Amino acid sequence: MDLYKHFPRSRLNFSHSFTSYFALLKKHDITVMDLLTTSPRELGLKSGIPEKELVYFVETLRNETPVIGKLKPAEWVSTGDDVMDSTLCGGIAVGCITEIFGESSTGKSQLCMQLTRSVALAGWKSVYISTESSLETRRLQEINPDLNSVYCINCTDLESQQHILEVQLPLLLKQGGFKLVIIDSISHHLRVELSAGGSYRRFVENRHRLLEISSHLNELCDEFAVALVVTNQISDFPEREIIDSEYKPISFDYQLGWLSGWDDATIRGMDFAKGMIPSLGLQWSNANMSTGVLGVFNQ
């Protein structure tokens, strides 16, 4: 029984009436999670423990556990396009990281600038951090005439990027009134730095650095209730051909889209994205709540 592992301060650990049932709970592989999520009647039939005893145990655990807080209602930043908002189930989620990746000239920066316009129309401000080059303010002004609502920051190297994210950005967000933070792109400086060296120690250090960055950004999203959008470059991921190309149309993977009822546009999109993966690897991808791919399709 894993009660002490999850609730070390619970008085049930020292309750004779409960500890006498430890053997039965362990015998039937019933964990604390099972106690909290399964009906007492079902657990009683499985373990032989009286139902009223199980109800008492569960109520005791619930009363001893402090409520951290209620879940915040979902909040979204509109992309300005109804079709894209519908695809994203409402838009760009507030309180988490959203990653947009794709090849060059697929509209990543264009979408980010459009987001600043949507935020400005709602009466909020945004922060635009540009890492690849100086931000094209003329292009931004064409999309979002209200430049007073956009705080633009340029960083030229990894050291300045780290200082901006860890020092300047939190201080700016503390002023209030912000709903969107854009980093375009997150991988420009990191990609070169993290690719240096091939030792296992270097690999572990790179993973630790990415974990620190993602944790810090997630904390900012939660603390200041902002939507954080990062653009990312891509790496080629050649598809391994298991069968000859002439037999590919009769393979299950090739026919899966039509068998599942997908439309032609969705199938083309899946084929397009199959050979690309975001830079910075799986460690970074797992840190993002949502990820989208942009591309240009040949009609």
One letter per element, helices H and strands E, the order comes to: HHHHHHEHEEHEHEHEHHEEHHEHE
Q: In which range does the helix fraction lie?
A: 40-55%
CATH fold group of the largest domain: Rossmann fold
Distance, first to last CA:
60 Å
Number of helices in the DSSP assignment: 15
Oligomeric grouping of the chains? single chain
Domain RecA family profile: 73-234
GO molecular function, one term: ATP-dependent DNA damage sensor activity
Protein name: DNA repair protein RAD57
Keywords: ATP-binding, Nucleotide-binding
Describe this structure in words.
It comes from Cyberlindnera jadinii (strain ATCC 18201 / CBS 1600 / BCRC 20928 / JCM 3617 / NBRC 0987 / NRRL Y-1542) (Torula yeast). GO terms for molecular function: ATP binding; ATP-dependent DNA damage sensor activity; DNA strand exchange activity; double-stranded DNA binding; single-stranded DNA binding. This is DNA repair protein RAD57. Pfam families: Rad51 (PF08423). With 299 residues, this protein is an alpha/beta fold. It contains 15 helices and 10 strands. The chain folds into 2 domains: 62 residues, no CATH class; 181 residues, 3-Layer(aba) Sandwich (Rossmann fold), CATH 3.40.50. Helices cover 47% and strands 15% of the residues. The relative contact order is 0.12. About 2% of the residues have low confidence.
